[in-house]
Amino acid sequence: MAWFERFLSQIADHPAQIFALLFVIALGKSTVMISSVLPPASLMLLAAIAISQPSLSIELVWLAITLGATLGSILTFHFGQLINQKMLFPRFFARHNGRLQRISEKLQHKGGLLVLFTSRFVAVLRYMVPMAAGMLTFSRTRVYCVTACSAAIWACLFIGIVSGALYFTAPLI
Asked: Which pick of 1, 80, 161, 169 has the fewest CB atoms within 10 Å?
């Protein structure tokens, strides 16, 4: 983590680089391929927000994190769709296709989008649920809207923790 602190101190005076860093970290935390390799990403994101405060407005910090998190979830959703369309696990889908269709229909009508929304706030579910939504053929428009809304609230929570406004919620995220 010392290398990351040195890196942050070097870019502290460059707002565009900080914006890009916040975007990339939030994107990585929401993507199944990257998040599983970077477990301390929450600490990295908190440190990047703290270093950005003198050079970026709070709105730009929020925008970078929201865009990165939304794009990460959307990419993971499309990865799930790719798994389903290309039948990357043919025996699994051949065996469970009818059951998966029934589950998909139930979830889309009975709170599946709520599960998608709340999964943003739980570490492993943050990228597993959007991937499952893609595999279960959830509506693309609904998934985009729900992930954007949850990412916006999630970004507010992170910024609130760093600014000290929400110090009591830090263990939850």
From this structure: 1
